[in-house]
Amino acid sequence: MLVEHPRGAAGGAALRNRLREPRTLAVVGVSSVLALLVGLQIAAFVNGFDGPLASLARDYIGTPKSMSVPWAGLVLALVGVNARRRVFAVFAAVGIDAVCAALRLLDGKPFTVGNGPTIVLTVLAIVAAVRWSGRERTDALKAAALGALLVLATKVGDVWLHVTSAVRPAVLDEYLLLADHALGDPSWVMGRVLDVLGPEVYAVLHWVYIELPVAAIVIAVWQLRKVVPTGEWPSHYLVRTFLVLGLVGPLFYVLFPVVGPMFAFGADGHGFQVGNFWPTALPPIDRSPAALPFDAFTPRNCMPSMHTAWALSLFIHTRRDVDGSRAPAWLRWGGAFWLAATVAATLGFGYHYGVDLVAGAVLCLTVESALRAPERGWGAFRVRMVGFGAVVFAGLLLSYRYLAVPMAEYPVLAGAIVIGLLAAVAAAFHATWFAAAPRPAMVRVAAG
Fold first, then answer.
1. Is the pLDDT of residue 7 over 60?
2. Cα–Cα distance for residue pair 82/281, rounded to 1 Å
3. What's the predicted TM-score (pTM) here?
4. SS3 category, 19
5. At CA 352, angle to CA 350 and CA 358, rounded to 5?
6. How far is CA 442 from the centre of its chain?
7. How many CB atoms lie within 10 A of CB 397?
8. Which end of the chain has less Cβ packing within 10 Å, N or C?
């Protein structure tokens, strides 16, 4: 019989404690991110599309892909430094952006911004790591890491969209069309509504749809506004949910590839669509659905609707402050507006089916339950909530795939079940996290 030597046990415990040290965790995290970026860059180069490192390089010395994401990352990073350094960083970023934009215009290239915040964010992290110490260094590096992760997550997401179309040549839109009959085909309804409302409403919804990261940063900055004066970080805040959703949700794009109504049943299908039906007419019910061969460049990014998941997380985090008190009215109304406008846009633009949105909402509530109030631990209350959400999410996807025909044939019953499951998860979420008396959710960050 083998018995572990006491010295070996002590050594194992010491190793485990060392792995829990912040510096060790940081090294492991940075190494993992770098390995992921390099791997995706190699895969992108082999398959002939843009990789994350190439896109990031253009943010420094070329034409940035996004004007808002680099600035959102810098603004998030600035929650970890004092007011004087914030002002200096913003002025430096604006100045660099102005010079880079002017040079591009003189060279005949399109106007865009984003170089300044990317460069300043990088310099801020380097200076904090090399020259600062104590709590000042810790807060600055943690905030800079959050800003950098936001930027890098968008780069990884862009590559993943290419991967979905490369590895899944056929899509399952015919199944979702049938399943969506249970909800009254909301994409077709909203598409016609937006046609009636006109270009002004379309422009507002389009801005809301593409600027979701900006809204997230506004909420995150509000949640982290007390970091510098108090030295305390909330145990949970919006950025954590955003990043985990972005890691988990897109995995299902490969498992359940879907392109959306405007592509599979509309004029934007590049010749692969079933017909030009969306949004004026519903396709006839096909009781023998099959996978639909599609082009090699349209992302399979519908199931689940991540825009809905992220917008719902915005809404949840605008209900209360991080200490459990009620959030101000402007934030609560803003969160409600962003959720409603995002839902209208995802459906009205033909990007998603209604069943996509239900799945995205369930995924959001499940992930949020796994992350929320970590100081309460993994008791039975959290296990029940996360397990319930995961089972409902899996059941929805399986029913969309294998029960699509019955859902179309019995839409009232099927729709009631789908909406009932979403309502049950929402009610359980509220009972778990909001019905009880608010509890403080702040943790002290050790200096140094």
1. no
2. 57
3. 0.88
4. helix
5. 145
6. 24
7. 18
8. N
